[in-house]
Specification:
The complex is a heterodimer of chains A (768) and B (160).
Chain A: H1 3-9, H2 26-29, E1 49-51, E2 57-61, H3 70-82, E3 89-93, H4 110-114, H5 119-139, E4 147-149, E5 152-154, E6 160-162, H6 163-167, H7 200-204, E7 220-224, E8 233-238, E9 248-254, E10 257-262, H8 265-274, E11 276-280, H9 291-297, E12 300-307, H10 311-317, E13 322-328, E14 340-345, E15 350-354, H11 359-370, E16 377-381, H12 393-407, E17 411-414, H13 417-423, E18 430-438, E19 444-455, H14 469-473, E20 507-508, E21 511-512, E22 521-529, H15 542-559, H16 564-570, H17 575-587, E23 605-615, E24 622-632, E25 638-648, H18 655-674, E26 704-709, H19 723-740, H20 751-764
Parallel strand pairs in A: 2-3, 7-17, 15-16, 19-22, 25-26
Antiparallel strand pairs in A: 1-2, 4-5, 5-6, 7-10, 8-11, 9-10, 12-22, 13-18, 14-15, 14-17, 18-19, 20-21, 23-24, 24-25
Helix pairs in contact in A: 3-5, 11-12, 15-19, 18-19
Chain B: E1 2-8, E2 11-17, H1 23-30, E3 49-52, E4 55-58, E5 72-73, H2 75-78, H3 86-94, H4 103-116, H5 122-128, H6 139-159
Antiparallel strand pairs in B: 1-2, 3-4, 3-5
Helix pairs in contact in B: 3-6, 4-6
Classes of the chains: A alpha+beta (768), B alpha+beta (160).
Chain lengths: 768, 160
């Protein structure tokens, strides 16, 4: 049986879409494993869409839903372009045997990739136009006389034909038409509407199938035994130490990878806890106390994003240079569910049920680790706990595959909380230093910024198993980091990591790609080997850089005695950044004045407001956020009270889903700003559970959030999931300064750091 | 391994398991329930929450032998997609989820508080949610859904 053909023959196999179909087991829902093409050709329409004999439309996508709403939005997209009700569309996400390879679902790229004029959107538009032409040919009518609605094409004289009558159960055998026209936002009836997320009923009633619920016949349970610290190597394993555990079937040792497989989860858990292993320690870790200084002394790979060549000369000659050094700690994805995967590895083929963001790369890595041909490995995406980037989902999938191969039976592997937190690819720690000076007219004359970014490993991609812990334990190296000096900037200006402040003109070889007016500009990045694995965590490096850039912008603004909104506008010429700043200021009733607030109280609770904005990745989303905070001067506790955000992501696919992402992003950003920081000792990460890594729980008194959408006419759809979080720490930091005069230059904003900033402010104003 | 009788979501079930096994593993592996999920295994996050005797219990740390006669209610025991419980309906109406992994802790904790005290204040409910973690930070919508449901229980409490 061929899985794709099953869908064509019988929409009944999948049932017509309803909330209930999300409760169907992925075993039944996804069809049988069999031969499949290594590459499902994304140029072909049949790779994306099928109309079944009963009129069900099955769409295949390589971008999946982790809770960010992509399942609902992509279903809306297909329904919109094909002029059918949402209930007619069944979306299959990220199954490497039947959906096109769209790489990794990450980086706010799903909307730009699938919602404009390529890929899924183009496929759906091509299908609609094809169906219209088929009907036109059948009747001899001009195609512009025909209309499509609710899966029926109506021609002249009222005659009509259904999609299934035209193509049901058969292939299109066409390539995507580059000229197929998308329905315009003015015509939309499904897309652009606040369609309730399709997974709601299943989620709220506990019927939704998470990866943690996947059960396969004859399945066993696995656990891993990780090293006690970074770089530790296996010296010996005492297999006798767990002999008393009745259901223990196998202890798997491969280089420094250790796992156990047992009949039940409980036995696997006991075996992993009790297995006696002697380890040889790795090198001692750098001390956390002076880690940032250590970081700045390391050999580095240097990159210049922009360099006008005159900053040293101008800063040397300036009398009023403003300097500041910002630090950003390691932070965690900290998924609420410890990662889990199920693998069924046979001698000649493998199926892996995985919550990875990278189903297709995971297939490639698994094929390497299992020594099986690529075409024999199938990865089926099943949603896990929210990941926010590279959490443990990739590692647990590889480990499950290794364990299943060792026992020749399906294995479900559940990480412990410690496995998850000690070994995930952390959000990078950074140091960012700024120097700038103002011209006599109060504008910024020159701005130089230099940052040190930690890096070790990353997403494994298609060929780098060592980028995550599983691969490293199996003897693969992470991507090498070659220290070396920066080359002069060349080519087009890029700002993928928001290294460059929005106010830089971004001029390279005469072409200026930045959104700002500052022409004496330099941005130099030093990438340094990290003692821990690092990887993309929601708004990777963008949140770190934006925190430092947007807070320093306010330091310059204070120096110029200007209003932070007005001062930003004076240094910008990107209309879309200007647009969100003005919209946020309007919505928040921003009154122009200098920060800090005049005559702040020296006791009790003081309040303030702060703004921050971003041109996300240089063109992939725009946000401006105004935060209002209360600071208790006695306890130095910071409590945000209100957020007003303006967001421009082009045409909005689902306003309710977008609001959900914005609210979640801002509050996650607030948690990261206020309490989140990874800790370690000389051997290991010591943030291994929810008592040693802080996150704001559900009892935290949440601020009000108001969001405004700015949608310029005729622009494409761009990223939306990471823009709001990116500006949150900076907006809060600027609000604390406004309330107290204290400048926070390091996250998280703990009472200790707030207290130190207040002392420094008093010293600065001669009040100490 | 030992046969153990349990009453789960209104049904009597007999499972053959190690009596020391956490209840969570029995619910998910023996009974195929999807509502309670493994989050931390240390009673720190709430993902595995069930209700027993009107109180919330972290099933990841409760040995199955300690359950006894008490009925266990999981998230799927409240209502179905076709007929959700009013608190589940409030969550559906508010779209109060992102990934949704944490929902057993959020919904069952709020329900248990309001079952015990239908007039519970927002403050009471928030305090009870202190041990529940949502890393997608859907806090605003979740608290709105709970408030919506609480308004109906408070109304009943007032009339009673």
């Amino acid at each position: 049986m061929h899985a794709r053909r099953d869908f064509l023959k019988a929409g009944a196999l999948l049932v017509s879409f309803s909330a209930a179909s999300l409760t169907v087991s992925s075993l039944e829902g996804q069809g049988q494993f069999d031969t499949h093409p290594s590459h499902i050709d994304p140029k072909k329409l049949d790779s994306w869409l099928a109309v079944a004999a009963d009129g069900t439309i099955t769409a295949y996508t390589g971008k999946c839903d982790f809770g960010q709403g992509m399942f609902t939005a992509q279903t809306q997209l297909v329904a919109e372009e094909l002029c059918v009700a949402i209930s007619r569309v069944k979306l299959i996400q990220c199954d490497t045997s039947i959906a096109p390879d769209q790489g990794t679902t990450s980086g706010s790229q799903s909307t730009p990739t699938n919602f404009n004029s390529q890929n899924l959107a183009l496929a759906a538009a091509t299908a609609r136009e094809t169906l219209l032409s088929l009907a036109a040919r059948k009747w001899g009518d001009p195609v512009d006389q025909l209309t499509a609605a609710d899966g029926v094409i109506t021609g002249t004289g009222g005659r009509h034909v259904t999609y299934e009558e035209l193509i049901g159960g058969r292939r299109f055998n066409l390539v995507l038409s580059p000229t197929a026209t998308r329905r315009s936002p003015e015509q939309w009836t499904v897309l652009g509407k606040p369609v309730p997320s399709l997974d709601r009923s299943a989620l709220m009633t506990g019927q939704f199938e998470f990866i943690h619920s996947v059960r396969v016949p004859h399945m066993l349970h696995g656990r891993v035994v990780r090293p006690p610290g970074m770089g530790a190597k296996v010296a010996s394993v005492d297999r006798g130490s767990v002999q008393h555990i009745a259901g223990l079937l196998k202890i798997v040792v491969r280089k420094d990878f250790i796992g156990v497989v047992a009949e039940t989860q409980y036995e696997a858990m006991l075996a992993a806890r009790q297995l006696a292993v002697r380890w040889n320690d790795g090198p001692e870790l750098p001390s956390q106390k002076d880690f940032f200084e250590h970081l700045q002394r390391q050999p580095s790979k240097d990159t210049l994003s922009v360099d006008s060549g005159d900053v040293e000369r101008l800063l040397d000659g300036a009398t009023n240079v403003v300097r500041a050094r910002y630090t950003y700690p390691y932070q965690m994805h900290g998924s609420v569910g410890a990662s889990c995967a199920v693998a069924d590895v046979k001698s000649d083929k493998a199926t892996i049920w995985s919550a990875t963001q990278s189903a297709y790369p995971t297939r490639s890595i698994a094929s390497t680790l299992l020594n099986l041909p690529l075409d024999s490995v199938r990865v089926i995406y099943v949603r896990g706990s929210g990941c926010y980037g590279l959490n443990g989902a990739d590692a647990v999938s590889f480990d499950a595959a290794i364990l299943s191969q060792a026992v020749g039976r399906p294995v479900r592997l559940q990480f412990s909380r410690e496995d998850e937190m000690m070994w995930e690819n952390l959000g990078a720690a950074c140091v960012i230093e700024h120097r700038a000076s103002l011209a006599p007219d109060g504008r910024i004359a020159v701005w130089d910024r230099e940052d040190w970014v930690t890096s070790l490993g990353n997403r494994p991609g298609y060929d780098r198993p060592g980028n995550v812990i599983s691969g490293m334990l199996l003897g693969y190296e992470p991507e090498p980091l070659q220290p070396g000096p920066a080359k002069p900037p060349a080519g087009k200006f890029r700002n993928q990591s928001n290294t460059v402040p929005s106010y830089f003109a971004g001029c390279i070889e005469g072409g200026c790609g930045g959104g700002g007016t500052i022409r004496s500009e330099r941005a130099l990045t030093h990438t340094v080997r990290s003692p821990f694995f690092t990887g993309p965590l929601r708004s990777p490096l963008r949140i770190q850089n934006t925190f430092a850039n947007e807070c320093f912008m306010n330091e310059l603004c204070a120096q110029a005695k200007a209003d932070p909104v007005d001062f930003r506008l004076r240094h910008l010429d990107n209309a879309r950044v200007i647009g969100v700043i003005k919209a946020a200021a309007r919505a928040a009733n921003w009154e122009p004045r200098v920060s800090p607030a005049p005559n702040p109280s020296k006791t009790g609770v003081v309040s303030g407001r702060g703004i921050a904005c971003v041109d996300y990745e240089g063109g992939n989303g725009y946000a401006a956020l105004i935060a209002e905070v209360a600071v208790d001067l006695a306890t130095c506790l910071v409590r945000p009270t209100r957020f007003v955000v303006a967001l421009d992501c082009g045409p909005v696919s689902n306003p309710d889903g977008l609001r959900n992402q914005i609210e979640g992003g801002i509050l996650q950003g607030m948690s990261r700003a206020l309490v989140e920081e990874v800790t370690w000792d000389n051997r290991r990460i010591t943030s291994t559970d929810w008592e040693t890594y802080n996150s704001l729980h559900l009892d935290y008194e949440m601020p009000a959030i108001e969001s405004v959408f700015v949608t310029p006419e005729g622009v494409p759809a761009i990223g939306a999931g990471e823009t709001a979080i990116t500006v949150t720490p900076a907006a809060i930091g600027n609000a604390i300064f406004d309330a107290t005069g204290g400048r926070l230059r390091g996250l998280p904003f703990t009472p200790q750091r707030v207290s130190a900033a207040l002392r420094e402010a008093r010293r600065g104003s001669g009040l100490a | 391994m030992k046969p153990i009788r349990l009453k789960v979501n209104g049904q009597h079930r007999t499972v053959n398991v190690d009596p020391d096994s956490p209840l969570l593993f029995v619910l998910s592996d023996e009974l195929g329930l999807r509502g309670p999920r493994f989050g931390c295994g240390m009673a720190q996050c709430g993902s595995c929450t069930v209700i027993m005797g009107g109180r919330v219990v972290r099933s990841c740390v409760m040995p199955v032998k300690a359950v006894g006669e008490e009925e266990v209610t999981t998230l799927e025991g409240l209502g179905t997609p076709a007929k959700p419980h009013p608190i589940q309906q409030a969550f559906i109406d508010e779209g109060a989820a992102q990934c949704g992994f944490c929902l057993s802790g959020v919904i069952l904790t709020a329900k248990a508080v309001l079952d015990g005290n239908p007039g519970a204040s927002d403050e009471d409910i928030r305090t009870a949610l202190g041990g529940v973690l949502c890393r997608c930070f859907t806090h605003t919508r979740m608290l709105r859904a709970i408030r919506k449901y609480a308004d109906t229980t408070r109304e009943h409490a007032r009339k009673a």
